[in-house]
Structure formats: C-alpha cells, structure tokens
Here is the input.
Amino acid sequence: MLIVVASQAGPGLRPAFAMRRHIAIIRPVSRSIVDCELTHLAREPIDYKIATLQHDAYRQALVDSGYKIVTVPRADKMPDAVFVEDTAVVLDEVAIMTRPGAVSRRGELDAVEAILQDYRRLERIVAPATLDGGDVLRLGRRIFVGRSSRTNDAGIEQLRTFVQDHGYDVEAVDVHGCLHLKSAVTAVGDATLLGNSAWLDRAPFDHLTWIEVDSAEPHAANALWLGERVIYPSAFPRTAALLRAHLEVQKRELCRVDADELAKAEGGVTCCSLILSV
Ligand code: CIR
Here is the structure.
C-alpha cells in the first residue's frame, strides 16, 4: 500500500523540474529473491507476491513524483537484480558501470548497461576494483563513497578517475555494521542528511545538517530524495516524524511506502532505482 503524506503538489509542477525529463530505471523483483545475498541480516522467508506488490507501489510513487519509468527485464536467475542501484553510478555527465562486490551480482550489469547507453556515455569499473552503487552518495559536486565489504579502495580510485575531470571530489567514508554507505546515510536535501552515526565515521559530513535516526530504528537512514519529495519506508514511524518535521519547514513532502519485504533482502528505497534526468 502506498500512503502519501501531505499535499499532492508533486515536483512535476515546478518549472525547473518540468524543463527536463526525469527517468527512473527499475527492475522487477526476481522470483528467486529468497536466495538473495545477505550480509548483516538473518535469512527470513520473503513472499515474492508481497515483494512485487510493494515494488509496484514504489513504482507508482516514482510515477506520482513525475518520473518516467524504464524497466529492465526481470532476471529470475539473479536473485538481487531488483536492486538496480548497485549496478551503476549515474551522473549528469557520465554513467559508471560498477563491479559489484558480490560475485553473484555481476551478471546483473549487461541488461542495465543496454538501457543506460541510450542516456549517457559509459565508463566501467574493472578488476581488481569492486564498487556497489549503494556505497555512492552524491551531494552536489561531492561524492562520498563507502569503504565497505562491497567496495574496495581500487573501486573508489577508479570512480575518482572517471569523475574528477567533471569537477567532482571523491571522499572515502568507512562503513561498519551495515551493508552500504547508503544503509547508514542518505541525502534528504541539498545540505541535509539522514543518518545512523553508529555505522560510519561522521567527520566528513560535519559541515552538513544531520538528522539522526531514532535509536529504536537503526535501519531508518535510507530515504530516496527526489527534489520536493522524499520516498520513505513506512516501517520507521519515529524517524519519519523527525524527517517530516524537517521537510515541512522546507515545504517538501514525505511519501511513505511499504518496503519491508525487500528490506528482508537488505534492500532499501534507494536500491530499487537508478534516477536520472535528460
Ligand atoms: C545484496 O546483498 O547485494 C542485496 N541482497 C541487497 C542490496 C541492496 N542494495 C543497496 O542497498 N543499494
């Protein structure tokens, strides 16, 4: 079920937003999702039907936010293929195909690449480097990259070489206790982050506004910021209240979606899309 909180005045009404076409690349849930990679969570049964219904609601939230959906074909033999975020880092100037840290996920890239090449010049992370898109957090011209169990120093260096000529600074951030950097922190505004300080070194973010997740909701830091709207899991009501209070001051809205079935696969709301504008 999709619950939209606050007004329906989506970003499609803003002139600056309307000047570009906004695209969300998504991929349906694989029938083998139950065999997904797990690093920090114990395996639980995942109901494919519920996961698919929740993914449909997520898709609708993107449509309601003004995004055209481009769908990568379902890949039933690749359990984690729904988490397209990990396959690429998409900037305005270039897209970088990653090399996921989990070997089981490397086959996911081809079908995503076939779509992305219509929108961006492509670069590729190559061995021995590994990089997951979930470890890459862009804030303006600064790109923070999680040094995690999925992303190594060589991956961070290769990313730097692809983006530095476009004026981006790349900064490594140590992540511990969770899967990706964006499990621990995401942007919810130009200079505002939502994060769980227990899972990372906060020093690189000191100059930014920090909203700390409620201590009862450690997994609550993953939000999908889409300009005037933030898509956010309904499973974290305490943190949602903090976030909503912050967003309302800025006349932004929180759009809550049920995402708990894919959360059992260690995925959040950023993981299920690649967002770009053309
Ligand atoms: C994995 O372990 O790779 C998947 N089960 C979850 C990936 C979630 N992706 C993300 O946070 N960007």
